Amino acid sequence: MTLQVRLDELDRDGVVLTLDESDAADLERTGLVEVRPRGGRRWQLLPRGYVGAVRLGNLQIQVDPKEKVGLSRLLFMLGYADDPGFRPEDVDGLDDPELWPALAESLARLVERALAGGVLQGYRSTEESLRTVRGRIRIGDQIRLRPGLMMPLEVTYDDFTVDTAENRIIRSALRRMLAVPRIPPDVVVRLRHLDARLEGVSLVPLRTQPPRWTPSRLNSRYQPALRLAELVLRNVSAETGTGGVPMAAFVVPMWKVFEEFVATALREALSAGPGRTMTPYATWLDEPGTAQRAGDVKMAVDIVHLDDEGHPRIVFDAKYKVASSGGQYPNADIYQMLAYCTAMQVPVAWLVYAQGDGDVTARRIRNTGITVIEYPLDLAVAPQAILRQIDRLVVMASVESPTTV
């Protein structure tokens, strides 16, 4: 029987469990929770700023994002931050409150749709040393590797094969999910059947980046499955723990997911208008000295939209923070934005917070022409509604920031 523990990422009490020392060390190594000894075989598990799930033998620890952000929203933001082509329907199978069954079900469903029209084939370029001519001889490599020798030949040729980048990504993700312990048996059967359909497709080596693929008309039916499969390969690990117990981990820093999602979504929304968006934007707070090319106090601003002449026009900063009971965010955020606006001569800055559906609040800074606006982003709604909030933010920012000071 599996012992399931669910924690909120803001939980300050955690939970105390009886664990072997090797299991405690494996949990600590995943980074999802802090593991504190409490005497004997008892250990206190505390969230440490990450969300996700770890399955270790018969134990499952899941840390959920604050503000009731569901798994579909978490994975949507994670996928969209890496690829704006990642759509809400790419995670439409994630209706299970537990991460592992939901992720396995969604992957199986999308791969089944992808393979419904047959396994995609394509040309793959291969470089080999052969004793017969096939394809094109690489003269430069032949001279460099075998000066004065005629055989073997360094050649490049194209094969029409199922071993394409798309199929390698999908099969590797299927194998990764099959290595996760205690996936529901019916889903395991489906994953194994899909893996068998990709016979002859090689796997992506562990700890390497998935191969590149280009969206096209030919692979359009594969694209939702590919985006989720890439997410699995980047974030899911499955191995044997130090005590010989099967272990799987999906651990992500929620603050980083939120900041990267907001940056990508704003860049996409702003791309429809003039200018360009930099994420991040490097500048300096102080003036350059006589013997230096730039200032001493460097700033890396999350998101800056530049006009056609390259001048900063709109400043954004994403904050994965919680307001106090009185609805106040940390004063330090306002000071930070005041510094950004002063250095870049921008009259309005936007603080994008990950909390609820609160009001947009504008704070006019005394004795300046600068306004800092707090914009809460509600992450508990559907993914499309989150993107609509970003669109609304861009419209408001464009109206509020027509010129520089």
Written account of the structure:
This protein has helices at 21-30, 71-82, 99-115, 139-145, 165-178, 185-197, 223-235, 254-270, 331-344, 383-400, and strands at residues 3-8, 15-18, 33-37, 42-47, 50-56, 59-64, 122-130, 136-137, 153-161, 236-240, 246-253, 276-278, 281-284, 298-301, 303-306, 312-319, 348-353, 361-364, 371-376. It is of the alpha+beta class and 405 residues long. The protein has 3 domains: 3-118 and 164-254, no CATH class; 122-161, no CATH class; 271-400, Trna Endonuclease, Chain: A, domain 1 (3-Layer(aba) Sandwich), CATH 3.40.1350. Strands 12-15-16-17-19-18 form a 6-stranded mixed beta sheet, sandwiched between helices. A hairpin with a 5-residue loop joins strand 15 and strand 16 (312-319). Helix 2 crosses helix 8 (254-270), helix 3 (99-115) runs parallel beside helix 6 (185-197) and helix 5 crosses helix 7 (223-235). The model has no long low-confidence stretch (mean pLDDT 85).
Radius of gyration over all CA atoms, rounded:
26 Å
Query: How do the strands line up in the largest sheet?
Result: 12-15-16-17-19-18
Q: Estimate the mean pLDDT confidence.
A: 85
Number of strands: 19
End-to-end distance? 64 Å
Share of residues in helices: 25-40%
Judging from the principal axes of the Cα atoms, what is the shape?
Answer: globular
